[in-house]
Amino acid sequence: MSICISTLQKLSQYKQYSKRALNLNEVFHMKENKGGGDCLFRSMAQNIYDDESRHRAIRRDICNYYKKFDMQASYPENSLEYKLQITLICEEFDSNGLRIDETTGECISKQNVWGGTAEILVMAILYRLNIIVVSAFDDKRYSVIPYRGDSRKAPIFLYYNGENHYQSLTPNRRVSSRISKNNKNNKNNKRKNKK
User: According to the model, what pLDDT value does residue 139 have?
Assistant: First the structure.
């Protein structure tokens, strides 16, 4: 069995796939970025703006969100805000309400400070995005983690190497065109069946 984009788009919870079933190179094109501690923000800028140099704007938006986020509020358990709240429970913050990276001891607002799960959650909330992270779990498996901001939007895909680097993933044209054709055929078949 081979995993395709449409299967990944429908995920609503964490799942693992063998690397044989999910052939990343067949399904996606992986975009390189300069990294240097900004790789998460750069890969999101590639997805949102098609320009990794706009990573500072994304980092700034996230920092502004942190300043306003109410850690004491009561959020619905199935919301991204609740997941963010749980993720941030053990984190440290500076006097401005910005998260401090545990590995560097630096504030998330500084360039070259790594972003992670909390920042992905903020981006999904802030930009109302569906973000799906495909992560190298081990030598034989990928873990796929969906962050659902707006289920009506097509997801943005990110790759995490499991250690220290994020990259933008874009569906390969031949795979995504096959999906478009299948979606059109499915819609046409549904219309015919209704008549």
Answer: 85
